Amino acid sequence: MPLYATKKKTDSDRLKQLLEIASESGLEPPKPQPTALERIIGLLRSAETSGIAADIQSGKGLMESLGNYGQRLGKGLTGQGLTKEDLSGVEGYKEVLTRAGVSDQPLFELGPIKPSVAGIAGFAGDIFLDPSTYLTGGLTKLGKQQLMLPEIL
Known about the structure:
There is one protein chain. The model has no long low-confidence stretch (mean pLDDT 78). It contains nine helices and no strands. Helix 2 (36-46) packs antiparallel against helix 4 (62-78) and helix 5 crosses helix 6. The termini are far apart. It has two domains: 35-90, no CATH class; 92-153, no CATH class. It is 57% helix and 0% strand. By secondary structure, the chain is an all-alpha fold.
C-alpha cells in the first residue's frame, strides 16, 4: 500500500478526457437534448415579464424590450434552451424595484421571513404580471415562489 494518496479517476474525469480528445481531433460531441421537464421550465421561465421591465430600466426602448421577450418566449416554446444571456434581467420584479430605488430593508423579521416593500411588491408583480399565472390558475407561480419564500421576502 503506498504511503501517499493517489487520485482515483472518476467517470467525470474520464468523460472530460474523452471530450478533450474529441475536441482536439476536430469532432464535436452531440449536444444533449432537453428533457420534457426542462422544456416546461424553460417555457415558464421565458414567459416571465420582469425581463421587459429590466430591459426598459436598462435604457432599451419598448419595442426592443418586447422583441427580446418574444425571442425568449420563442426559444422557450420550441425547447431550444435558454442561455444565461437570454435570461439576463429576468430575475424578478423584486430586483427591478430594488434597482429603481424601492426599499429592500426588512419591515420586520419573523424567523427566516423578512418582508420588505420591494419583496412584497415584487412578489405581487411576479404573480399578477406573469402570463403563466392566468394560464395555470396561479398554481405554477405560487408553487415556484413557495419554495423560495424566505429568499423573496
